[in-house]
Amino acid sequence: MVVPVYNEEECLPAFHRELSAILRSQVEPYEIVYVDDGSQDRSLELVESLRLSDPNVRAVVLTRNFGHQLALTAGLEFSRGEAVVTMDADLQHPPSLIPRMLAEWRKGARVVSTVRTDTEDIGACKRLTSRLFYGLINALSRTPVQPDAADFRLLDRGAVETLRSMKERHRFLRGMIGWLGLPEAVIEFSAGRRAAGASKYTWARMFSFAADGIVSFSTLPLKAALILGSLALGLCGLYAGYVVYMFAFHGVLLIKGWASTVLLTMFLGGCQLILLGVTGEYIGRIYEEIKARPLFLVRELRGFAGRAPEPGR
Q: Do the Cβ atoms of 9 and 41 come closer than 8 Å?
């Protein structure tokens, strides 16, 4: 089990009780890898308490908050199981699904994904933006991304090792796992309310997450320059033809006002600025990649016998 933790002190005790009860009912030995992602509350203290009372608990302590996707990546880096389940600690990912996920894995699925059919505390605006995002990314990208997929999934050891070999910094794990093309099973579930606390995914983080997904798996936004340029050229050609027609057949030379000139200038200028911004986003990500900094930094490992902290991946 890989569980990222960021300011989850209110959820952790209940989550661990429920998760441990489910895991103890299975025949396989297990470990729970909690990844503290720079928590500012008592989360790390609670994880340490759980580790001291439960020999199956491990802790990966990051030096700061690296974000949800990189915390999951850190957990996958240090996981050792033949099957690895990633999930959040807020109990919106029900541990009761784990036996079904293991059953699908035993049948031959290399990836077992979960898809939310409903979420109790999600608003209409978030539902709409989620649908728009998945519709957009699947329209732009050749890599299929399951709509409403959660980061609650089971990965076979082979899938984990392949993900470990993929080094990109701006990680969109849902797309990366879809890119693998491995045999996959899907389980639907209804997400309940958070056990406590508030969601850490603010609108700014969700926008950044969506941008990571689109830019990482599609170059079509870069091709928008050709599309918009062709459109502008076509409109200008039509307008020029209209001017020639009016002068040749009606003797009217269209030199009226400045509104059309201003609007055309604003349209072309807006298109250029948007395309510069999109191009800058791709260039910025190239700049981040070529610096080749570690994806995350580990302050310490707890419960991993014989393993010392590594600088990151």
A: yes
